[in-house]
Amino acid sequence: MSLAIVHSRAQVGVQAPAVTVEAHLANGLPSLALVGLPETAVKESKDRVRSAIQNSGFDFPPRRITLNLAPADLPKDGGRFDLAIALGVLAASGQLPAGALEDVECLGELALSGALRPVQGVLPAALAARALGRTLVVPRENAEEASLASGLKVMAADHLLELTAHFAGHTPLAPYQAQGLLAERPPYPDLADVQGQAAAKRALLVAAAGSHNLLFCGPPGTGKTLLASRLPGLLPPLEEQEALEVAAIHSVASHAPLRGWPQRPFRQPHHSASGAALVGGGSRPKPGEITLAHQGVLFLDELPEFDRKVLEVLREPLESGEIVIARAHDKVRFPARFQLVAAMNPCPCGYLGDPGGRCRCTPEQIQRYRAKLSGPLLDRIDLHLTVAREATALEPGPSEGPSSAEAAAEVARARHLQLQRQGCANAFLDLKGLRQHCALPDADRNWLEDACERLGLSLRAAHRILKVARTLADLEEAESIARHHLGEALQYRPESLDLAQ
């Protein structure tokens, strides 16, 4: 009897649990049994592996072969185990030294010719392999992504023959050296390109400084989408751990190679998107738009055109920063710490309040249009701003207001103060942090309580006003919150836009 063990990784959400591929050869009629809760694509791997081994010039052992993918209660899907299975069969049959496979983990799909094809979810597997001090063997097309896990030894190959020659000691493979291709990222669009809209630029700066959610309301063509697209360029650069989280999500969500790493993501789903598209789902849960926007910006244009039930699924992730998708046999947790920016028109035609009197919507139509947005959802958006129509100027004039670089420098200073003081952005302060870092003098506290009472604001809204005021103080590098900070923060509430009727 012969037994060989090869290490690999499954994919569950953005995690990569360990899978041990055990290959056992016994006497008896030639057969191949694959056990360990494999799904259809994994069951088909035995045919791919047989052809790949034979077309690579090796003998497929005419014995009773049992392949076990442990642990048995973990579902396995895809072709990511092909390479590990092939190496296990070759080691169990004595065509490869079994000892050479002890400290490596293998991922890759095999073509019938023995060529290696890329798979999804390599980066989470690379991070897990690095934690155990093992070498990761991947197809060459996945090698650049795997090399993002600094300190990990990556072996890349195009064909099964290259790996068998390496493990047999005939032609050793050199560790893969990162080419730096993923660091080539395009520049963000510049805030200086937006003409006018000084108040909207100010709100964008405040939102970036404190990681606050933002809603623009105004007629068509006033630059709401243009402004929203500038927000990622104002945010601080991603820390290494944050960048790896973003890259890992992209890795499990798409076969396409990573581009623009480590930029903050900017996701803009169409208003016809379903709830599953927004939060993720499927029989094998995949990340949705809110997870793809993790550590970045989720922009929802034409907000009232989204189905109300779809919008309501955002309420819990906005508070918790994650989404849990439960299925009959599994529960998957995805990160969803995104910054929400939304845009909407004031009425169905979009011209309510226009000086030219262009709006012909009835009060009932306006009320029905605004009722698509629930109070609890609006309550979770810190900044609400009306974007007015500017004077038409076909020729771009001189830039007004700060450029993205200048605004980003202000944001970086404010964020630095927040991280030094409390270890997080102001938008993520808990109740203890509010009491400690947003304390007000008695006169200002009574003034704010009276204002909240007159406006009918909830306690959550009052806390968000305090967080925005703390951000305004940080932008001025002030030690404490002043009355004018509270006044400006109150101006950004939905009541001032008449949306909470």
UniProtKB/TrEMBL annotation:
GO MF: ATP binding; DNA binding
SMART domains: AAA
ATP-binding keyword on record: yes
UniProt cross-references to Gene3D superfamilies, sorted A to Z: 3.30.230.10, P-loop containing nucleotide triphosphate hydrolases (3.40.50.300)
Top-level taxon in the UniProt lineage: Bacteria
Domain (MCM C-terminal AAA(+) ATPase): residue spans on this chain: 288-387
Keyword Nucleotide-binding among UniProt keywords: yes
One Pfam family linked to the record: ChlI
Keywords attached to this entry: ATP-binding, Nucleotide-binding
Family recorded in the similarity comment: Belongs to the Mg-chelatase subunits D/I family. ComM subfamily.
PANTHER family, sorted: COMPETENCE PROTEIN COMM, MAGNESIUM-CHELATASE SUBUNIT CHLI
Official protein name in the record: Magnesium chelatase family protein
Taxonomic source organism: Metapseudomonas resinovorans NBRC 106553
